[in-house]
Amino acid sequence: MPSSVIEEFMIIIAVVLLGLVLFGLTMTYFLPHELFSIAQQQASSLSSTSTLSVGPLLVSKNSGSAVIELYNPSVSLNISILVFAVPSYLEQDVGIIGPTSTPSFSVYLPNGQLAKTININSPIYDVGGGIIYDTPIMTYTIPVNEPVTVTVNNVNSNSILIIWILYYSNGYWFRIDYGFTGVPSS
């Protein structure tokens, strides 16, 4: 076999290997980064066009309830909701604190049916791209533009509820809005 054929064959193998390396790099770094960027933009857009309404916390016999609605007339989709109780003195920190234990709450749709649960086993990001929660947690799936009733156990008149509205896109979870109940009433 002439040496020029061997040289050409070696060049072809090198080009193929280089192409495979570049393809692998694209698939492992650039594609996930691009998918995250697209998901983050979608979450940010939804966040900026939505309004979270939170009713007062009604407390009765160590449990509480509140009516919550995420309003956005331009979309018709489902989002997830996470609710947890904290002492009312943490009210100024609602944007930066997360649940410290597994929340005990239920969400009921307008027809009185219990909403479907969903387990989140991946990080939750804020719309800026930072991780705000990284522990498996159960949430409920609810429709946008419909009020839901949330009930939470182990609350009292010194508690507030923190509500996180979560959006799933391209394999990533984002907190697109948050709010809290005011001073509880009995």
What is the strand and helix layout of this fold?
Elements: H1 3-48, E1 51-54, E2 58-60, E3 63-71, E4 78-87, E5 105-108, E6 116-120, E7 124-126, E8 131-133, E9 137-143, E10 148-153, E11 159-169, E12 172-180
Parallel strand pairs: 7-12
Antiparallel strand pairs: 1-3, 2-3, 3-10, 4-9, 4-11, 5-10, 6-9, 7-8, 11-12
Structure description:
The chain crosses the membrane at residues 9-31. This protein has one helix and twelve strands; from the N terminus they run H-E-E-E-E-E-E-E-E-E-E-E-E. It has one helix at 3-48; strands spanning 51-54, 58-60, 63-71, 78-87, 105-108, 116-120, 124-126, 131-133, 137-143, 148-153, 159-169, 172-180. 27% of the residues are buried. The mean pLDDT is 89.
Essential attributes:
transmembrane, transmembrane helix, membrane, 5-stranded antiparallel sheet, Immunoglobulin-like, 40% strand, 7-stranded mixed sheet, alpha+beta
Count of DSSP helices? 1
Q: How many domains is the backbone divided into?
A: 1
Distance N terminus to C terminus? Answer: 93 Å
Radius of gyration: 24 Å
Low-pLDDT parts are none
A few lines on this structure:
The chain has 186 residues and is an alpha+beta fold. The chain has one helix at 3-48, and strands at residues 51-54, 58-60, 63-71, 78-87, 105-108, 116-120, 124-126, 131-133, 137-143, 148-153, 159-169, 172-180.
